[in-house]
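name: query_chain
kind: protein
chains: 1
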Amino acid sequence: MQKIKAIIFDLDGTLIDTIPFHAESFITLFGLFGHKVKKQKIKHYLRLNTEEIYKKLGAKKTLKLDMKKFLELRRRIYYAAIKGKKTVFNDVFPALQKLKKYRLGIATNSSRKTLLKSTPKGLFKKFDSAISFSEVKSAKPSPEMLLKIAKKLKAKTKECLVIGDSVMDVKAAKKAGMKIMSIYRKTGASTLKELQREKPDFIAKSLSEITGTIKKIEN
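structure:
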Protein backbone atom coordinates (compact mmCIF):
# COMPACT_ATOMS: atom_id res chain seq x y z
CA MET A 1 0.00 0.00 0.00
CA GLN A 2 1.32 3.42 -0.98
CA LYS A 3 0.81 6.07 1.70
CA ILE A 4 0.66 9.79 0.92
CA LYS A 5 2.32 11.94 3.58
CA ALA A 6 2.88 15.24 1.76
CA ILE A 7 0.87 17.30 -0.74
CA ILE A 8 2.70 19.87 -2.85
CA PHE A 9 0.62 22.60 -4.47
CA ASP A 10 1.44 24.90 -7.32
CA LEU A 11 0.41 28.48 -6.53
CA ASP A 12 -0.82 30.62 -9.46
CA GLY A 13 -3.84 29.11 -11.17
CA THR A 14 -4.07 26.36 -8.56
CA LEU A 15 -4.53 28.06 -5.18
CA ILE A 16 -4.96 31.65 -6.32
CA ASP A 17 -6.71 33.07 -9.38
CA THR A 18 -3.84 35.29 -10.53
CA ILE A 19 -3.00 34.05 -14.03
CA PRO A 20 -5.20 36.76 -15.65
CA PHE A 21 -3.39 39.45 -13.61
CA HIS A 22 0.01 38.08 -14.61
CA ALA A 23 -1.06 38.09 -18.28
CA GLU A 24 -2.36 41.65 -18.07
CA SER A 25 0.86 42.86 -16.43
CA PHE A 26 2.92 41.78 -19.46
CA ILE A 27 0.42 43.31 -21.89
CA THR A 28 0.43 46.57 -19.91
CA LEU A 29 4.22 46.69 -19.77
CA PHE A 30 4.61 46.23 -23.52
CA GLY A 31 1.86 48.81 -24.06
CA LEU A 32 3.78 51.39 -22.03
CA PHE A 33 6.54 51.14 -24.63
CA GLY A 34 4.15 51.28 -27.57
CA HIS A 35 4.13 47.56 -28.37
CA LYS A 36 1.28 45.08 -28.52
CA VAL A 37 1.48 41.47 -27.43
CA LYS A 38 -1.37 39.01 -27.85
CA LYS A 39 -3.07 37.69 -24.71
CA GLN A 40 -3.06 34.10 -26.02
CA LYS A 41 0.68 34.26 -26.61
CA ILE A 42 1.29 35.56 -23.10
CA LYS A 43 -0.99 32.95 -21.53
CA HIS A 44 0.93 30.18 -23.29
CA TYR A 45 4.18 31.43 -21.73
CA LEU A 46 2.80 31.95 -18.21
CA ARG A 47 3.68 28.39 -17.28
CA LEU A 48 7.31 29.59 -17.40
CA ASN A 49 9.13 31.85 -14.93
CA THR A 50 9.34 35.57 -15.78
CA GLU A 51 13.01 35.36 -16.75
CA GLU A 52 12.15 32.80 -19.44
CA ILE A 53 9.15 34.84 -20.60
CA TYR A 54 11.45 37.86 -20.98
CA LYS A 55 13.59 35.82 -23.39
CA LYS A 56 10.66 34.26 -25.26
CA LEU A 57 9.10 37.67 -25.93
CA GLY A 58 12.39 39.19 -27.05
CA ALA A 59 11.89 42.01 -24.55
CA LYS A 60 15.55 43.02 -24.54
CA LYS A 61 15.45 43.86 -28.25
CA THR A 62 11.84 45.08 -28.45
CA LEU A 63 11.63 47.17 -25.28
CA LYS A 64 15.34 47.96 -24.91
CA LEU A 65 15.17 46.83 -21.29
CA ASP A 66 17.65 44.64 -19.45
CA MET A 67 16.17 41.74 -17.49
CA LYS A 68 16.51 43.41 -14.08
CA LYS A 69 14.53 46.48 -15.15
CA PHE A 70 11.96 44.34 -16.97
CA LEU A 71 11.39 42.21 -13.85
CA GLU A 72 11.10 45.30 -11.66
CA LEU A 73 8.51 47.00 -13.90
CA ARG A 74 6.52 43.84 -14.54
CA ARG A 75 6.27 43.02 -10.84
CA ARG A 76 5.31 46.59 -9.94
CA ILE A 77 2.41 46.45 -12.42
CA TYR A 78 1.34 42.99 -11.20
CA TYR A 79 1.49 43.90 -7.49
CA ALA A 80 -0.63 46.99 -8.11
CA ALA A 81 -3.18 44.91 -10.04
CA ILE A 82 -3.72 42.29 -7.30
CA LYS A 83 -3.73 44.72 -4.38
CA GLY A 84 -7.00 44.39 -2.48
CA LYS A 85 -8.32 41.68 -4.80
CA LYS A 86 -9.85 38.42 -3.55
CA THR A 87 -7.76 35.86 -5.40
CA VAL A 88 -8.07 32.61 -3.44
CA PHE A 89 -10.22 30.06 -5.30
CA ASN A 90 -13.43 29.13 -3.45
CA ASP A 91 -12.51 25.46 -3.13
CA VAL A 92 -9.11 26.08 -1.48
CA PHE A 93 -9.86 26.59 2.21
CA PRO A 94 -12.53 23.84 2.40
CA ALA A 95 -10.04 21.42 0.79
CA LEU A 96 -7.17 22.40 3.10
CA GLN A 97 -9.45 21.93 6.10
CA LYS A 98 -9.65 18.22 5.21
CA LEU A 99 -5.90 17.83 4.80
CA LYS A 100 -4.70 18.59 8.32
CA LYS A 101 -3.00 15.22 8.76
CA TYR A 102 -0.77 15.81 5.72
CA ARG A 103 2.35 17.95 5.38
CA LEU A 104 1.53 20.72 2.95
CA GLY A 105 3.87 22.64 0.67
CA ILE A 106 3.84 25.22 -2.12
CA ALA A 107 6.17 25.01 -5.13
CA THR A 108 5.96 27.93 -7.54
CA ASN A 109 7.88 29.18 -10.57
CA SER A 110 7.36 32.71 -9.25
CA SER A 111 10.11 34.50 -7.32
CA ARG A 112 10.15 34.46 -3.52
CA LYS A 113 9.07 38.10 -3.47
CA THR A 114 6.10 37.43 -5.75
CA LEU A 115 5.19 34.30 -3.77
CA LEU A 116 4.94 36.38 -0.59
CA LYS A 117 3.18 39.32 -2.30
CA SER A 118 0.65 37.08 -4.06
CA THR A 119 -0.27 34.72 -1.22
CA PRO A 120 -2.66 36.08 1.42
CA LYS A 121 -1.29 35.55 4.94
CA GLY A 122 -4.34 33.52 5.93
CA LEU A 123 -3.54 31.07 3.14
CA PHE A 124 0.23 31.05 3.54
CA LYS A 125 0.07 29.99 7.20
CA LYS A 126 -1.82 26.83 6.21
CA PHE A 127 1.38 25.44 4.67
CA ASP A 128 4.37 23.85 6.35
CA SER A 129 6.85 24.99 3.71
CA ALA A 130 7.10 26.89 0.44
CA ILE A 131 9.71 27.01 -2.30
CA SER A 132 10.05 29.39 -5.23
CA PHE A 133 12.18 29.86 -8.34
CA SER A 134 14.49 32.01 -6.19
CA GLU A 135 15.66 28.95 -4.25
CA VAL A 136 16.53 26.68 -7.18
CA LYS A 137 18.71 26.63 -10.28
CA SER A 138 15.96 25.35 -12.59
CA ALA A 139 12.23 26.04 -12.54
CA LYS A 140 9.53 23.49 -13.33
CA PRO A 141 9.43 21.33 -15.50
CA SER A 142 12.73 20.50 -13.78
CA PRO A 143 12.02 18.28 -10.75
CA GLU A 144 14.54 20.20 -8.61
CA MET A 145 11.92 22.31 -6.83
CA LEU A 146 9.74 19.32 -5.97
CA LEU A 147 12.64 17.22 -4.74
CA LYS A 148 13.85 20.05 -2.48
CA ILE A 149 10.48 20.70 -0.91
CA ALA A 150 9.88 16.97 -0.40
CA LYS A 151 12.99 16.95 1.79
CA LYS A 152 11.71 19.97 3.70
CA LEU A 153 8.42 18.17 4.24
CA LYS A 154 10.34 15.04 5.33
CA ALA A 155 8.64 12.85 2.75
CA LYS A 156 9.95 10.39 0.18
CA THR A 157 9.06 11.10 -3.45
CA LYS A 158 6.61 8.18 -3.55
CA GLU A 159 4.85 9.67 -0.52
CA CYS A 160 4.14 12.98 -2.31
CA LEU A 161 1.13 14.10 -4.32
CA VAL A 162 1.61 17.14 -6.55
CA ILE A 163 -1.35 19.34 -7.50
CA GLY A 164 -1.07 21.94 -10.27
CA ASP A 165 -2.88 23.58 -13.16
CA SER A 166 -0.01 23.53 -15.68
CA VAL A 167 1.63 20.96 -17.92
CA MET A 168 4.87 22.04 -16.22
CA ASP A 169 3.57 20.57 -12.96
CA VAL A 170 2.82 17.27 -14.69
CA LYS A 171 6.27 17.06 -16.27
CA ALA A 172 8.06 18.02 -13.05
CA ALA A 173 6.09 15.54 -10.94
CA LYS A 174 6.74 12.67 -13.33
CA LYS A 175 10.47 13.43 -13.40
CA ALA A 176 10.48 13.55 -9.59
CA GLY A 177 8.68 10.20 -9.33
CA MET A 178 5.64 11.73 -7.63
CA LYS A 179 1.93 11.26 -8.23
CA ILE A 180 0.27 14.22 -9.96
CA MET A 181 -3.31 15.46 -9.88
CA SER A 182 -3.88 18.12 -12.48
CA ILE A 183 -6.48 20.71 -11.57
CA TYR A 184 -8.23 22.25 -14.55
CA ARG A 185 -9.18 25.88 -14.06
CA LYS A 186 -10.78 28.02 -16.76
CA THR A 187 -8.32 30.76 -15.85
CA GLY A 188 -5.41 28.37 -15.35
CA ALA A 189 -2.13 28.20 -17.26
CA SER A 190 -3.03 25.12 -19.33
CA THR A 191 -6.11 24.00 -21.22
CA LEU A 192 -7.87 20.72 -20.47
CA LYS A 193 -6.60 19.24 -23.74
CA GLU A 194 -3.02 20.24 -22.90
CA LEU A 195 -3.29 18.57 -19.50
CA GLN A 196 -4.84 15.41 -20.95
CA ARG A 197 -2.02 15.23 -23.50
CA GLU A 198 0.55 15.04 -20.68
CA LYS A 199 -1.34 12.13 -19.06
CA PRO A 200 -1.27 13.06 -15.38
CA ASP A 201 -2.31 10.37 -12.89
CA PHE A 202 -5.54 12.23 -12.23
CA ILE A 203 -7.41 15.26 -13.58
CA ALA A 204 -9.88 17.17 -11.40
CA LYS A 205 -11.99 20.29 -11.74
CA SER A 206 -12.14 21.02 -8.03
CA LEU A 207 -9.75 20.66 -5.09
CA SER A 208 -12.58 18.92 -3.26
CA GLU A 209 -11.47 15.82 -5.20
CA ILE A 210 -8.12 15.58 -3.38
CA THR A 211 -9.24 13.23 -0.61
CA GLY A 212 -10.85 10.89 -3.13
CA THR A 213 -7.66 10.94 -5.20
CA ILE A 214 -5.55 10.03 -2.17
CA LYS A 215 -7.84 7.07 -1.43
CA LYS A 216 -7.39 5.83 -5.00
CA ILE A 217 -3.59 6.09 -4.70
CA GLU A 218 -3.45 4.36 -1.33
CA ASN A 219 -5.82 1.55 -2.28
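note: The chain has two domains: 6-17+87-218, 19-82.
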